[in-house]
Design goal:
flat, two-stranded antiparallel sheet, mainly alpha, 2 strands
């Protein structure tokens, strides 16, 4: 009988090519990896909404800033042309732009400092008074905060009116016009901005103070520290994350003030002496129909605010503060 001469089977190594090689199995995603995507799934609806309400308008603002876009292009009389950085070059060559930028920075800095000082001082005061005065102060502050900007600005213009305003009569300064001079007009607007902005700082800082353990404050008081020393050495360091938030918010709000300046100075004051960047952009875009130039001012404002916020946060990170 003939012997079996079939060749022996050669074993195939795992992973080697061949008909008998099995494809590698995929490892299931680890629970930690799946858990890492879970927060983003919850945030997805909000991110989509912000993308439509924030990202797309910023994209359109940047796009128009690179175009020649005036009333002729809006009405269809002339084609829209790409200008590159032409609008920015025109803007940076304008001496009025630099004057308005300087005035905006100084005015916003004064508003932020005044708002932080008054808000923090009243927050400390709330911790020192009884329940009824505290409730009255909170209700008055929240009423000022809830008042629309245009309503508050109109009321303040009436209060300081040179003919019918009660403030001039109480101070005995006759028919002095607060909005005629440049610095008096800026001071008047600063007071109105302070009036409607300090409640946010006051309420936020007051909530942070209430979260500080009472034992810490009592120990500092027993050691003989004054109220100013307790605030500077105990409260302020512990409230640093909160103070950072309210500072950044105040910088953003006060840098882009529009309603108060436009209403109280009648569009920017005499010969534009009280212009800020937001009102200046409005005049260029809508009063002069230079929409491309107005958009370029808006982009410059956005870049400045982003730079200030990022630099401030980076300085905080270097100090090891967690937000």
């Amino acid at each position: 009988m003939a012997a079996n001469t079939a060749p022996p089977k050669i074993p195939v190594r795992p992973g080697a090519s061949g008909a008998q090689a099995r494809p590698p199995r995929r490892r299931p995603a680890s629970p930690a990896r799946r858990a890492g995507w879970t927060p983003w799934l919850y945030l997805l609806p909000a991110l989509v909404l912000l993308g439509g309400l924030l990202v797309y308008p910023i994209y359109q603002l940047g796009l128009i800033s690179f175009l020649e876009y005036t009333q002729a292009q809006v009405s269809g009389g002339e084609p829209t042309t790409f200008q590159g950085f032409g609008n920015y070059a025109t803007l940076f060559r304008d001496s009025q732009f630099w004057q308005v930028l300087l005035a905006t920075v100084v005015f916003a800095a004064a508003c932020v400092l005044a708002t932080l000082f008054v808000g923090c001082a009243l927050a400390v005061l709330l911790t020192r008074v009884r329940a009824l005065p505290r409730l009255a102060l909170m209700m008055a502050a929240l009423g000022a905060w809830a008042t629309p900007a245009i309503t508050g600005s109109t009321v303040w213009v009436f209060l300081f009116d040179p003919d019918f305003g009660p403030v001039n009569n109480v101070l005995g300064i006759g028919d002095f016009s607060w909005t005629y001079g440049r610095y008096s007009a800026f001071a008047l607007v600063l007071l109105e901005v302070l009036w409607c902005s300090f409640p946010f700082v006051m309420v936020t800082v007051y909530a942070g103070i209430r979260a500080i353990p009472t034992e810490v404050l009592e120990a500092a008081s027993l050691d003989g520290a004054s109220q100013w020393r307790i605030w500077r050495s105990v409260m302020a360091p512990m409230l640093k994350p909160i103070l950072i938030v309210v500072t950044i918010q105040s910088v953003i709000w006060d840098f882009k003030v529009f309603t108060q300046i436009y209403v109280m100075t009648n569009g920017g004051g005499i010969a534009g002496q009280n212009l800020v960047l937001n009102v200046y952009a409005y005049q260029k875009a809508f009063a002069s129909s230079q929409y491309g130039l107005g958009s370029a001012i808006g982009v410059v404002m956005l870049v400045i605010l982003l730079a200030v916020t990022l630099v401030y946060l980076r300085l905080v990170r270097r100090q090891g503060e967690e937000l």
